[in-house]
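hiii, so i know i said id send this last week but things got crazy w the move. better late than never?? heres the sequnce for the chain we talked about at the cafe, plus the structure i predicted for it. fair warning i was half asleep when i ran it
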Amino acid sequence: MNNIESIRDLIAQSRNAEALDAVRASVSDSADPPAAEAAYLACLACVRMGAFAEAQTWYGRLDLTTIADASLRSDALCVAARISKLRFAALKSVDEHRAIRHAVEAFIHYKKAFDEYVTPYAAINAAAMAWIIGENAACRQFAHIALIGSLGLAGVWPCATRAEAHLLLGDVTAAQTEYRAAYGLARGQHGLVASMRRQLDLLAVPGSHDCLNEVPAPVVIAFTGHMLDRPDREVPRFTGTMADAVARRLREKIDGYGQVVGFSQAACGADILFLEAMQEAGMQTTVVLPFSAADYLETSVTFAGPAWVARHRKVLANATRVVHATEERYLGDDVLFQHAADLIQGMAFLRASELATTPHLLVVAQSGAESHLGGTVATATRWNSADWTSDCIELEPTVLPALQAERQPMTGEPMPSRRTIHSFMFADVTGFSKMPEEYTPAFVDTFLTSIRCVLDAMQRPPVDANTRGDGLYLVFDSANDAAICAHNVLAAIRATDWTALGLPQDTTVRIGLHAGPAYRTYDPVMRKDTFYGSHVNRAARLEAIVQPGQIYATETFAALLAVNGETGFRCEYIGETQLPKSFGTAPLYRVLRTA
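okay and structure toks below
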């Protein structure tokens, strides 16, 4: 496999950061300008990571006249168009004038791409952008070409192309028919459905709403429910004899939703019953375990007997994905249950955003049940207090109401937690290693003073801070505060005159954000409290793969930001990315301000 093929393979696997690094390495090994295809692939990788400024830089290095392949020239132009189209989508509700400028750019690029290589893809996108900028004649011309060009072609995208062409040409009934066919072909491939829904929302053509009904988004469920009663529970709540009835009601509920994507733990009782019902129906399930699998089995399954242990192992084996909130041991830290509950809710929000819908909470609980840290009642109370959509299957009371006061806590009083949940921020300045040494004192003074000003302006400053050279490590009590600080640091660095320090003016920072449990301990060397644990180490690995001028976050951080209801930020999915130093892969997000 040659270098270009290997880079294409990395992009196909959504390993976009590695693909970009491979292009950079090939460029640094040669004094010549990058090969056109390499520059195109770098541009494509940047677009998929949401790094539009860098994508534009790579596109500027791409000399189309050196590309003999008309298809590749068209692909390159389509990537440039996509950059402009995404910028239009991001700005249309906040700055209409700037948004339309990007829409015009997108139309020009798609038209050029079509002129280079005639495809239904370029034609339908040119038609869509022509509609948005008010070029109705061009819209009808390209829509007609896209319709004719896709006739006889099978698959989701030919159907979607014909549907969009019919819609732009005013034939809503024909568009509905094609969207219905596209949905049938894409059933279960929720990302394809989300793309169609986003395009309909972007166009806002008369009839778009009717067409949206033909491509319904799946219902995204965050699930929580009671475990089976432990043998020493004095007042019954959820006994083994109730399981079949609850399972039946869960199957009925899931059948009524249609397509469903679910997130849950896997404790004996309601969790396993929900996962079994989902998996029997062929739905996607993500299981979140609060800590190590062995400890979770011991704390939340084993007491119910070997049959439930076998069912637990089966739902894990059949899950679409299994996520460990932390892979470390339980060690009596009940806060890990709360952390997992927050992740389930936050991941449901992230997935719903990706699929252009909103999440639901499905609860199996007994009315009036006691609340525990990270338990069903606490989770439902938090969700409902935010007025988010929820649905409850109530367990039938098993004793007379007068006896309910005699119930005892299921697991006794929670043990004092030694670990606490925090958000971690690592950052460094790009190009620092190339700075002439005589500028070091001025750099340190400028950089650290800028950071100090940012921290002094915060309502809730970090609970720990460390610096080393151009490196910055901060710890926060909440994901919201970490996101605010990250964006303020980025803005401060961008406003600095780096040329006075011997660095390029476009010098910027790379910022990585993560969250998880950590030990708060006293450092006798520094004479202050600080934080240690595997999640601090994981956070440190992230910053090295962040693209310059960007803020990347792990899925855990993005989920906590989402469940906190913070509307000042949005997290865009980048993809599964390889972390340095044998830390495996991780789904990463780009953290953006919403305004």
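btw Residues 70-91 form the longest helix (22 residues). thought thatd interest u
miss u guys!!
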